[in-house]
Design goal:
This protein is an alpha/beta fold and 338 residues long. The chain contains 13 helices and 8 strands. It has a single domain, classed as 3-Layer(aba) Sandwich (Rossmann fold). α3 links the parallel β1 and β2. Bound molecules: iron/sulfur cluster and magnesium ion.
Protein backbone atom coordinates (compact mmCIF):
# COMPACT_ATOMS: atom_id res chain seq x y z
CA UNK A 1 0.00 0.00 0.00
CA UNK A 2 1.45 3.39 -0.96
CA UNK A 3 1.70 6.27 1.51
CA UNK A 4 -1.10 8.17 -0.29
CA UNK A 5 -3.44 5.14 -0.28
CA UNK A 6 -2.75 4.58 3.39
CA UNK A 7 -3.52 8.21 4.26
CA UNK A 8 -6.74 8.10 2.26
CA UNK A 9 -7.88 4.97 4.08
CA UNK A 10 -7.12 6.53 7.43
CA UNK A 11 -8.98 9.71 6.52
CA UNK A 12 -12.06 7.69 5.44
CA UNK A 13 -11.99 5.71 8.68
CA UNK A 14 -12.36 8.77 10.93
CA UNK A 15 -15.84 9.32 12.40
CA UNK A 16 -16.55 13.00 13.10
CA UNK A 17 -19.34 12.84 15.71
CA UNK A 18 -20.68 10.18 18.06
CA UNK A 19 -24.00 10.28 16.12
CA UNK A 20 -22.15 8.91 13.07
CA UNK A 21 -20.92 5.78 14.86
CA UNK A 22 -22.36 2.52 13.48
CA UNK A 23 -25.51 1.38 15.31
CA UNK A 24 -24.78 -2.34 14.89
CA UNK A 25 -23.29 -4.10 17.91
CA UNK A 26 -20.94 -7.08 17.63
CA UNK A 27 -20.33 -7.42 21.36
CA UNK A 28 -23.71 -7.57 23.04
CA UNK A 29 -25.48 -9.08 26.05
CA UNK A 30 -24.40 -12.43 27.51
CA UNK A 31 -21.19 -11.41 29.23
CA UNK A 32 -20.67 -11.57 32.98
CA UNK A 33 -18.29 -8.71 33.59
CA UNK A 34 -18.70 -6.60 36.74
CA UNK A 35 -20.97 -3.58 36.73
CA UNK A 36 -18.98 -0.59 35.50
CA UNK A 37 -16.30 -2.70 33.78
CA UNK A 38 -14.53 -0.41 31.32
CA UNK A 39 -12.77 -3.33 29.61
CA UNK A 40 -16.20 -4.65 28.55
CA UNK A 41 -16.95 -1.21 27.13
CA UNK A 42 -13.65 -1.28 25.27
CA UNK A 43 -14.65 -4.62 23.71
CA UNK A 44 -17.97 -3.12 22.64
CA UNK A 45 -16.32 -0.07 21.04
CA UNK A 46 -13.65 -2.18 19.39
CA UNK A 47 -16.20 -4.58 17.84
CA UNK A 48 -18.40 -1.68 16.73
CA UNK A 49 -15.41 0.08 15.16
CA UNK A 50 -14.10 -3.05 13.42
CA UNK A 51 -17.45 -4.25 12.03
CA UNK A 52 -18.71 -7.68 10.94
CA UNK A 53 -15.73 -8.83 8.83
CA UNK A 54 -13.59 -9.32 11.91
CA UNK A 55 -12.01 -12.23 13.76
CA UNK A 56 -11.37 -11.53 17.44
CA UNK A 57 -8.70 -13.46 19.29
CA UNK A 58 -8.59 -13.18 23.08
CA UNK A 59 -5.89 -14.27 25.51
CA UNK A 60 -6.83 -15.58 28.95
CA UNK A 61 -7.96 -12.82 31.30
CA UNK A 62 -11.19 -11.16 32.45
CA UNK A 63 -12.31 -10.59 28.87
CA UNK A 64 -11.93 -14.30 28.16
CA UNK A 65 -13.40 -15.70 31.37
CA UNK A 66 -16.32 -13.30 31.69
CA UNK A 67 -17.27 -13.22 28.02
CA UNK A 68 -17.50 -16.93 27.31
CA UNK A 69 -18.82 -18.61 30.42
CA UNK A 70 -20.68 -21.93 30.25
CA UNK A 71 -21.90 -21.90 26.65
CA UNK A 72 -22.81 -18.21 26.67
CA UNK A 73 -21.01 -15.47 24.78
CA UNK A 74 -21.42 -11.84 23.99
CA UNK A 75 -19.43 -12.06 20.74
CA UNK A 76 -21.40 -11.78 17.51
CA UNK A 77 -18.24 -11.97 15.38
CA UNK A 78 -16.01 -15.10 15.34
CA UNK A 79 -13.94 -15.29 18.48
CA UNK A 80 -11.02 -17.55 19.40
CA UNK A 81 -9.34 -18.07 22.76
CA UNK A 82 -5.58 -18.22 23.08
CA UNK A 83 -3.28 -18.85 26.05
CA UNK A 84 -2.31 -16.14 28.51
CA UNK A 85 1.02 -15.40 26.85
CA UNK A 86 -0.04 -16.43 23.35
CA UNK A 87 -1.50 -13.26 21.85
CA UNK A 88 1.48 -12.41 19.62
CA UNK A 89 1.69 -15.90 18.12
CA UNK A 90 -2.11 -16.06 17.72
CA UNK A 91 -2.19 -12.69 15.95
CA UNK A 92 0.53 -13.75 13.57
CA UNK A 93 -0.93 -17.22 12.94
CA UNK A 94 -4.44 -15.94 12.26
CA UNK A 95 -3.28 -13.18 9.91
CA UNK A 96 -0.88 -15.55 8.10
CA UNK A 97 -3.59 -18.23 7.74
CA UNK A 98 -6.01 -15.72 6.20
CA UNK A 99 -3.37 -14.55 3.74
CA UNK A 100 -2.49 -18.15 2.76
CA UNK A 101 -6.15 -19.18 2.33
CA UNK A 102 -6.79 -16.16 0.11
CA UNK A 103 -3.64 -16.73 -1.93
CA UNK A 104 -4.63 -20.37 -2.53
CA UNK A 105 -8.13 -19.31 -3.55
CA UNK A 106 -9.74 -21.23 -0.67
CA UNK A 107 -11.56 -18.14 0.57
CA UNK A 108 -12.60 -14.93 -1.14
CA UNK A 109 -9.99 -12.20 -1.29
CA UNK A 110 -11.34 -9.44 0.92
CA UNK A 111 -10.17 -7.36 3.90
CA UNK A 112 -10.78 -9.28 7.13
CA UNK A 113 -9.74 -7.62 10.36
CA UNK A 114 -7.73 -9.59 12.91
CA UNK A 115 -8.06 -8.00 16.35
CA UNK A 116 -6.24 -9.63 19.24
CA UNK A 117 -6.71 -8.52 22.82
CA UNK A 118 -4.72 -9.34 25.92
CA UNK A 119 -4.65 -8.00 29.47
CA UNK A 120 -1.75 -6.36 31.27
CA UNK A 121 -0.35 -9.68 32.49
CA UNK A 122 -0.96 -11.43 29.16
CA UNK A 123 0.40 -8.60 27.03
CA UNK A 124 2.80 -6.40 28.95
CA UNK A 125 4.32 -9.09 31.20
CA UNK A 126 4.09 -12.74 30.21
CA UNK A 127 3.18 -12.24 26.55
CA UNK A 128 5.48 -9.32 25.77
CA UNK A 129 8.11 -11.30 23.87
CA UNK A 130 5.46 -12.88 21.63
CA UNK A 131 3.82 -9.51 21.01
CA UNK A 132 7.21 -7.97 20.19
CA UNK A 133 8.01 -10.81 17.81
CA UNK A 134 4.66 -10.42 16.03
CA UNK A 135 5.30 -6.70 15.59
CA UNK A 136 8.35 -7.41 13.41
CA UNK A 137 6.28 -9.22 10.73
CA UNK A 138 4.45 -7.67 7.84
CA UNK A 139 0.96 -9.04 8.52
CA UNK A 140 -2.27 -7.14 9.10
CA UNK A 141 -3.50 -7.31 12.69
CA UNK A 142 -4.22 -5.08 15.64
CA UNK A 143 -3.16 -6.05 19.16
CA UNK A 144 -5.10 -4.31 21.96
CA UNK A 145 -3.68 -4.28 25.46
CA UNK A 146 -6.62 -3.83 27.84
CA UNK A 147 -5.01 -2.70 31.03
CA UNK A 148 -6.92 -2.90 34.31
CA UNK A 149 -3.60 -2.75 36.17
CA UNK A 150 -3.85 -6.18 37.82
CA UNK A 151 -4.58 -9.83 37.14
CA UNK A 152 -8.22 -9.24 37.88
CA UNK A 153 -9.91 -12.52 37.01
CA UNK A 154 -7.76 -14.44 39.52
CA UNK A 155 -8.41 -11.94 42.32
CA UNK A 156 -6.39 -8.79 41.67
CA UNK A 157 -2.76 -9.83 41.71
CA UNK A 158 -0.02 -7.28 41.07
CA UNK A 159 1.48 -7.00 37.57
CA UNK A 160 4.21 -4.73 36.23
CA UNK A 161 1.37 -2.46 35.12
CA UNK A 162 -0.03 -1.97 38.62
CA UNK A 163 0.63 1.67 39.59
CA UNK A 164 3.16 2.62 42.24
CA UNK A 165 1.91 1.89 45.76
CA UNK A 166 -1.46 0.42 44.72
CA UNK A 167 -2.92 -2.26 46.94
CA UNK A 168 -3.46 -5.67 45.34
CA UNK A 169 -3.75 -9.13 46.85
CA UNK A 170 0.05 -9.40 46.35
CA UNK A 171 0.86 -5.93 47.67
CA UNK A 172 -1.12 -5.38 50.86
CA UNK A 173 0.12 -2.42 52.92
CA UNK A 174 1.31 -3.47 56.39
CA UNK A 175 2.46 -1.87 59.62
CA UNK A 176 6.15 -2.35 58.83
CA UNK A 177 5.93 -1.52 55.15
CA UNK A 178 3.22 0.74 53.79
CA UNK A 179 4.22 0.71 50.10
CA UNK A 180 4.60 -2.80 48.75
CA UNK A 181 4.49 -2.04 45.01
CA UNK A 182 7.56 0.15 44.54
CA UNK A 183 8.08 -0.29 40.78
CA UNK A 184 6.78 2.39 38.42
CA UNK A 185 4.34 1.28 35.69
CA UNK A 186 5.78 0.38 32.28
CA UNK A 187 5.07 2.52 29.19
CA UNK A 188 4.26 -0.03 26.53
CA UNK A 189 3.40 2.08 23.47
CA UNK A 190 6.79 3.90 23.51
CA UNK A 191 8.45 0.50 23.71
CA UNK A 192 6.49 -0.73 20.70
CA UNK A 193 7.14 2.31 18.51
CA UNK A 194 10.80 2.68 19.42
CA UNK A 195 11.62 -0.95 18.82
CA UNK A 196 9.50 -2.05 15.86
CA UNK A 197 9.90 -0.22 12.57
CA UNK A 198 7.12 -2.25 10.93
CA UNK A 199 4.56 -0.60 13.19
CA UNK A 200 2.95 2.34 11.39
CA UNK A 201 0.28 3.05 13.97
CA UNK A 202 0.08 2.77 17.77
CA UNK A 203 -2.03 4.66 20.30
CA UNK A 204 -3.24 4.98 23.86
CA UNK A 205 -6.89 5.36 24.79
CA UNK A 206 -9.32 4.97 27.67
CA UNK A 207 -13.03 4.10 27.22
CA UNK A 208 -14.08 7.35 28.93
CA UNK A 209 -13.43 8.99 25.53
CA UNK A 210 -15.56 6.82 23.19
CA UNK A 211 -15.14 8.64 19.87
CA UNK A 212 -11.40 8.93 20.39
CA UNK A 213 -11.25 5.18 21.06
CA UNK A 214 -13.48 4.11 18.16
CA UNK A 215 -11.48 6.25 15.74
CA UNK A 216 -8.20 4.84 16.98
CA UNK A 217 -9.36 1.27 16.34
CA UNK A 218 -10.59 2.25 12.87
CA UNK A 219 -7.36 4.05 12.05
CA UNK A 220 -5.22 1.14 13.25
CA UNK A 221 -7.16 -1.30 11.07
CA UNK A 222 -7.02 1.04 8.06
CA UNK A 223 -3.29 1.68 8.29
CA UNK A 224 -2.64 -2.07 8.15
CA UNK A 225 0.45 -4.02 9.10
CA UNK A 226 1.00 -4.82 12.76
CA UNK A 227 -0.63 -2.10 14.89
CA UNK A 228 -0.97 -1.66 18.63
CA UNK A 229 -3.33 0.06 21.07
CA UNK A 230 -2.99 0.35 24.85
CA UNK A 231 -6.23 1.09 26.71
CA UNK A 232 -6.38 2.06 30.38
CA UNK A 233 -9.57 0.45 31.74
CA UNK A 234 -10.86 1.44 35.19
CA UNK A 235 -11.92 -1.72 37.04
CA UNK A 236 -14.31 -1.25 40.02
CA UNK A 237 -13.40 -4.58 41.58
CA UNK A 238 -9.63 -4.20 41.44
CA UNK A 239 -9.43 -0.44 42.02
CA UNK A 240 -12.10 -0.44 44.74
CA UNK A 241 -14.58 2.31 43.87
CA UNK A 242 -18.30 2.66 43.17
CA UNK A 243 -18.93 1.41 39.58
CA UNK A 244 -20.73 4.65 38.73
CA UNK A 245 -17.34 6.43 38.71
CA UNK A 246 -15.68 4.32 36.01
CA UNK A 247 -15.88 7.02 33.32
CA UNK A 248 -14.94 9.73 35.79
CA UNK A 249 -11.78 7.85 36.74
CA UNK A 250 -10.83 7.38 33.09
CA UNK A 251 -11.22 11.13 32.57
CA UNK A 252 -9.26 11.95 35.72
CA UNK A 253 -6.41 9.64 34.69
CA UNK A 254 -6.05 11.78 31.56
CA UNK A 255 -6.74 15.17 33.16
CA UNK A 256 -4.11 14.59 35.87
CA UNK A 257 -1.58 13.61 33.18
CA UNK A 258 -1.16 10.10 34.57
CA UNK A 259 -2.52 8.63 31.33
CA UNK A 260 -1.58 10.68 28.24
CA UNK A 261 -3.73 10.20 25.14
CA UNK A 262 -1.72 10.10 21.93
CA UNK A 263 -1.21 8.38 18.60
CA UNK A 264 1.90 7.44 16.71
CA UNK A 265 1.36 7.52 12.97
CA UNK A 266 4.07 7.22 10.34
CA UNK A 267 6.89 8.49 12.49
CA UNK A 268 4.97 11.28 14.25
CA UNK A 269 3.40 11.64 17.67
CA UNK A 270 -0.04 13.27 17.68
CA UNK A 271 -1.42 14.26 21.09
CA UNK A 272 -5.19 14.02 21.49
CA UNK A 273 -7.35 16.32 23.63
CA UNK A 274 -7.21 16.96 26.53
CA UNK A 275 -3.57 15.76 26.61
CA UNK A 276 -2.79 18.04 23.64
CA UNK A 277 -4.00 21.02 25.69
CA UNK A 278 -1.95 19.90 28.68
CA UNK A 279 1.23 19.57 26.62
CA UNK A 280 0.65 22.95 24.93
CA UNK A 281 -0.04 24.58 28.29
CA UNK A 282 -3.67 25.55 27.44
CA UNK A 283 -5.12 23.11 30.00
CA UNK A 284 -3.81 22.86 33.54
CA UNK A 285 -3.15 19.37 34.80
CA UNK A 286 -5.32 18.41 37.79
CA UNK A 287 -3.49 17.28 40.96
CA UNK A 288 -2.96 13.50 40.95
CA UNK A 289 -4.72 13.20 44.28
CA UNK A 290 -8.08 13.93 42.58
CA UNK A 291 -7.59 10.56 40.88
CA UNK A 292 -5.91 8.66 43.73
CA UNK A 293 -8.28 9.63 46.55
CA UNK A 294 -11.31 8.14 44.76
CA UNK A 295 -9.88 4.60 44.80
CA UNK A 296 -9.64 2.25 47.74
CA UNK A 297 -6.41 0.76 46.40
CA UNK A 298 -4.63 4.03 47.34
CA UNK A 299 -6.46 4.60 50.65
CA UNK A 300 -3.26 3.91 52.67
CA UNK A 301 -1.38 6.75 50.89
CA UNK A 302 0.09 9.46 53.11
CA UNK A 303 0.94 13.02 52.03
CA UNK A 304 4.46 11.82 51.30
CA UNK A 305 3.22 9.11 48.90
CA UNK A 306 0.96 11.55 47.07
CA UNK A 307 3.85 14.03 46.73
CA UNK A 308 6.09 11.31 45.29
CA UNK A 309 3.39 10.29 42.78
CA UNK A 310 2.86 13.93 41.81
CA UNK A 311 6.61 14.48 41.36
CA UNK A 312 6.89 11.45 39.06
CA UNK A 313 4.00 12.67 36.89
CA UNK A 314 5.31 16.29 36.86
CA UNK A 315 8.63 15.03 35.56
CA UNK A 316 6.87 13.40 32.60
CA UNK A 317 5.68 16.80 31.40
CA UNK A 318 8.39 19.13 32.68
CA UNK A 319 11.55 17.16 32.03
CA UNK A 320 10.90 14.56 29.37
CA UNK A 321 12.02 15.12 25.80
CA UNK A 322 8.66 13.87 24.44
CA UNK A 323 6.23 15.04 27.17
CA UNK A 324 4.26 12.28 28.84
CA UNK A 325 5.78 9.66 26.52
CA UNK A 326 9.57 9.30 26.49
CA UNK A 327 12.35 10.57 28.73
CA UNK A 328 14.99 10.08 26.03
CA UNK A 329 17.18 13.11 25.42
CA UNK A 330 18.68 13.74 22.02
CA UNK A 331 22.45 13.62 22.07
CA UNK A 332 25.03 14.76 19.59
CA UNK A 333 26.70 11.65 18.29
CA UNK A 334 30.23 12.28 17.07
CA UNK A 335 31.49 9.90 14.42
CA UNK A 336 35.13 9.08 15.02
CA UNK A 337 37.30 9.83 12.04
CA UNK A 338 39.67 7.02 11.14
FE1 LIG B 1 -14.00 -5.90 34.48
FE2 LIG B 1 -12.40 -5.60 36.60
FE3 LIG B 1 -14.63 -7.04 36.79
FE4 LIG B 1 -12.57 -7.94 35.38
S1 LIG B 1 -12.61 -7.60 37.60
S2 LIG B 1 -14.72 -8.02 34.76
S3 LIG B 1 -11.78 -6.02 34.46
S4 LIG B 1 -14.46 -4.81 36.39
MG1 LIG C 1 -5.38 -7.21 33.96
Amino acid sequence: MSEIERNERVYKAIIKTIKDTPLAEYYTSGHRTCQGCESALLMRYMAKAAGPRTIVVGATGCMYVANTTYMTTSWVVPWVHTQLGGSGAAALGTAAALRALMRKGKIKEEPINVVVFCGDLGCADMGLSGVSNAMTYDYNFLIILYDNESSANTDIQETSMTPYGAQTSFSRPGKQKRIMKRRWKKSVVPMIIAGHRNVKYAATLTPAYPLDGINKVRKALSVGGPTFIHSLDPCPKGWDYDPMYSHKLGQLAVETGIWPLYEYYNGEIIYNEPTKGIVEGRIKRKPVNEYLEKQGRFSHFTEEDIEYFQKMVDEMYEKWEIPGIMPIKSINVKIKES
